Amino acid sequence: MKIKRIFLWVVYVIVAAAIVFAVVSTKGFGLLNKNNNNNSSGWQAVFLTNGQVYFGHLSDMNQQFVKLTNIFYLQVNQQQSLQSSGSSSPSTGSSSSPNLTLIKLGNELHGPTDQMNINRDQILFTEDLKSSSQVVSSINKYYANNK
């Protein structure tokens, strides 16, 4: 009889520990909440398998899709500049320096809405952006100028 009671007590402890672990890992009691970071701006960067990076607010994450709203992305423009070689004749060589522009999603030819449902299989990783990041500063300027 004593062995049976000890066995039941061990089972109860294991079940209770499993429940506590499940609650902590899914809810985190606020400890794992991404917005608890004092440096966090509330903006995320989403890096996709095709090399594209989108900036916005992630929500409604489920097993297959995540929703991204208030979307911005970077557009790369190559600027060509001639180099002089120090001689009297101009150099034929050129160098390119990337010029990055932050673009607000929605004004493209196909007229997308400001929401994406992104398949999780296409996401390499996400990052929370600091309030002091250049991207967040540019986004804040965009909203200040487009009220």
Care to describe what's here?
It is a single chain. With 147 residues, the protein is an alpha+beta fold. It has two domains: 1-32; 34-145, SH3 type barrels. It is 26% helix and 39% strand. It contains two helices and six strands, in the order H-E-E-E-E-E-E-H. It has helices at residues 2-27, 134-145, and strands spanning 40-48, 53-59, 65-82, 94-104, 115-119, 123-130. Strands 1, 2, 3, 4, 5 and 6 form a six-stranded antiparallel sheet that branches. It is elongated, with a radius of gyration of 25 Å. The N and C termini lie far apart (75 Å).
Task: Itemize the secondary structure elements and their pairings.
Layout: H1 2-27, E1 40-48, E2 53-59, E3 65-82, E4 94-104, E5 115-119, E6 123-130, H2 134-145
Antiparallel strand pairs: 1-2, 1-6, 2-3, 3-4, 3-5
CATH topology of the largest domain: SH3 type barrels
- Overall tally of domains: 2
Q: What is the molecular shape?
A: elongated
Most strands sheet = 6 strands, antiparallel
Q: List low-pLDDT spans.
A: 23-37, 84-93
CATH architecture of the largest domain: Roll
CATH class of the largest domain: Mainly Beta
Find the count of extended strands (DSSP E, 2+ residues): 6
Tell me roughly what share of residues is in helical segments: 25-40%
The number of helical runs is: 2
Give the mean pLDDT.
Answer: 77
Give the end-to-end Cα distance, rounded to a whole number of Å: 75 Å
> How do the SSEs run, as a string of H and E?
HEEEEEEH
List descriptors.
6 strands, SH3 type barrels, 26% helix, 2 domains, alpha+beta, elongated, 147 residues, six-stranded antiparallel beta sheet
